Amino acid sequence: MSTLIAGSFAFDNILVFHDKFKNHILPDKVHILNVAFLVPTMRREFGGTAGNISYNLKLLGGDPLPMGAVGTDFGPYAERMDSFGIPRKYVMEIPEHFTAQAFITTDEDDNQITAFHPGAMGEGHRQKITDVTEPVDWGIVSPDGKEAMVQHAAQFESAGIPFIFDPGQGLPMFSGDELLEVVDQAEILAVNDYEWQMVQDKTGHSSDDLSKRVDTLIVTKGGEGSEIYTQDGLIHVPAAKPKGIEDPTGCGDAYRAGILYGLEKGLDWETTGRIAATMGAYKIECSGPQNHSFTVEEFKARMEDNFGASF
Fold this sequence. Notes:
This protein is α/β, with parallel strands linked by helices. The chain is about 35% helix and about 25% strand. It has 9 helices and 13 strands. A 9-stranded mixed beta sheet has the order 5-4-1-8-9-10-11-12-13, with helices on both faces. The mean pLDDT is about 95.
């Protein structure tokens, strides 16, 4: 059985400005701002929620089936997916668009100026859950174009496929009522602690009320671990210890891949949470969302080191 991963694909262009923005922006002239930053250091990373989650799930030995919309410049990403054996059957190319792209310029103070071009991501709703012919056990609605997220959630429910709702950076696009509608369709709500507070503020509902609207609520808390609220009670999952901290970008996607692997294999929640935590540790040790790797044996040994048990 496959896990259907509905979300985005994107190129992350990381640029480094070897100075400080504040030395080049005049506060009294911001109304006529016209600046240029020389950025001799640049790298391009493969990203997007569907791409990241699929990459991580494949590393674990899972069976990802990603769904999303991309542009005519997707070629290098497509070659990468093929090299890892990640299927592209439901990755739709939109000829009139570029693939979604972020341009992130960081200065010496770690300040960032980001420009995000959604491109083909805005056409994600043209992909339908009903188009999928493979048997699917679980799905996830991860950050994407708003229309795609809303439609895919409804289509998962209509198809009888249980899914995780992972609103992430897409949260600001939703009203409180819209959030509640998708939450009620999902089996699992997965958020970080900041997003969890935002969901409560937007909907006007308490944590107790919202947690009862889904079978399982997952709240990640970075270095403090995560909390999994099930019908049988609360499971606190400690954070796995990384060997070093390089880049948190994509840690949430890696964690969610661990959750999906546990669901795919029918594992208990405590084991599933530990797999997810270990995935986050591997990711934070590397720069970029898809540059970490391991063998299954190495992964199991890391779990033994952190939790005294594997899977």
